[in-house]
Amino acid sequence: MDEKILDFIKNEQLLSWSMIDDSGVYTASAFYVFDEKNLSLIIASHEQTKHIQLALKNPSVAVNIAKENKIAFLKGIQAKAEFKYANKEQEKMYFSKFSFAKFDKKARIYTLDLIWAKLTDNTLGLVKKIEFLKKSLYYLTK
Predict the structure, then answer these.
(1) Fewer CB within a 10 Å sphere, N or C end of the chain?
(2) Using a CB cutoff of 8 Å and minimum separation of 24, what contacts does 90-93 make?
(3) H/E element holding 63?
């Protein structure tokens, strides 16, 4: 993955993600921790929420991370990801950054494993886009 994409993701902590429901698209926001080794965005939520139920039903989700600013300084990531349960190491990573989440006994930790990402960074020029595509059987069969 390009360093510019990695740097952007590492320096943010709030994302929006979208999943499909019966009438179209449903969106939620979440604080995240970036697992660089696995290229995963680690989030927390309650299992009974609509967005988690939808993601469990169809784990192919879209992700957006953006810095709102003037058009000339706009930076953001558009991504496709696979929703999964986090492993123990990822849970520890999440709790080390957001320790308050440990006190929410109903919360579970999940990951959004990046499959494709595109960085828009208008400070590099309005037409400059940097893309990442994970070479995986999962993505190629979708």
Answers:
(1) C
(2) 90/35, 90/38, 90/40, 90/42, 91/42, 93/33, 93/35, 93/42
(3) strand 60-67
- The answer to whether 42 touches 94, Cβ cutoff 8 Å, is yes
Rg of the chain's alpha carbons, rounded to an integer?
15
Q: 11-50 burial by CB neighbour count: b if 16+ within 10 A, else e?
A: ebeebebbbeeeeeebebebbbbbbeebbbbbbbbeeeee
pTM score, whole prediction: 0.89
- What residues does 31 pair with on adjacent strands? 14
Q: Report pLDDT digits (tens) over 93-134.
A: 999 999 988 888 889 999 999 999 999 888 776 667 888 888
Residues paired with residue 78 on neighbouring β-strands, in sequence order: 64, 118
Q: What local confidence, expressed as pLDDT, does residue 141 receive?
A: 43
Q: For 3, phi and psi rounded to 5 degrees?
A: -60, -35
Q: Are 61 and 19 in contact (CB under 8 A)?
A: yes
Q: What is the mean pLDDT of each run of 10 residues along the chain (142 residues)?
A: 94 96 93 98 97 96 87 87 98 95 89 95 74 66 43
